[in-house]
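Q: I'm writing up a methods section and want to include an example of the input and output format. Could you take the sequence below and give the corresponding predicted structure tokens, formatted cleanly so I can copy it straight into the document?
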Amino acid sequence: MQGYGLRGSSAESHPFACAPDVVRVPTGIVNCYLVGDAGGWVLVDTGIGGFAPAIRRAVEERYGSGATPLAIVLTHGHFDHAGNVNTLCHRWHQWNVPVYAHALELPYLTGQSDYPPQDPTVGGAMAFMSRVFPCTGRKIVANLRPLEGTQIPEMPGWTWHHTPGHTPGHISLFRESDRLLLAGDAMATMDLDSWAGQMRRRPQPSPPPAPMTTDWEAARRSVLLLASLEPNAVAAGHGLPMAGDGVAEAVRHFSRTFTPPARGRYVTIPATAGPSGVEWLPPPVPDPFRKQIAGVALVALGAVGLAAAARSRR
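A: Here is the clean output for your methods example:
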């Protein structure tokens, strides 16, 4: 099993092809993908807000100046996947370009609902960072459309699959001809929970981003579905694409051994959602880190107070 591109080099931070007509474009900690050729192409996910110029540069390098997509497809609406929809549509003067998402994801893309709060108590590197992540929905003012059937008109040869768990309306995309899977965040291809894994970025099937996953049983079923597709290559929202003869077996093994975190707000009781967004949340779990920060702050304030008192006595 091997990763496409040049793992361990500066090429990781630049676009590279993971199939003749599929290009990974990194935007900070998350990937988006250009799918298609100059005759017609689709943008899958739009990355973290602020990375629109990087995406536009990648588009121009691949398709030429003035190129615009046939459609934008969102695997889900989290801030790191839908962060540039409005900006890109504005820059491309393409407010009528269809922006596809699952119907259950629409409340978070129309400003109707926020996502459930992230859960940093699951532990790990991504959970630590998630304390500063937003959980708000967003209002997309472009031509938002719910997905229908199993195919997207602008992506011939591809099928979309509902893979909830990370979010209620999460989808993944699969192409039978070369068995390429665009997994979104239904699974990652790097160990997001490990600080060392964040640095090494070794391609391997891994759980979805834990602090933002709000239904772990649904997430497990989604991984089983992805394994049943027997992909030869996996390109995910987080991590480097991986391909080779061993990928299908690696994903099968991962699906058989899939295990939720040992603790956390949503681990045993999921959040529930419906057509209007979040319907119910399990009670919060105490976050010991906040108490630690509060303790450090009190000590710091005490030290400042003592220093001030000492100066006043001089």
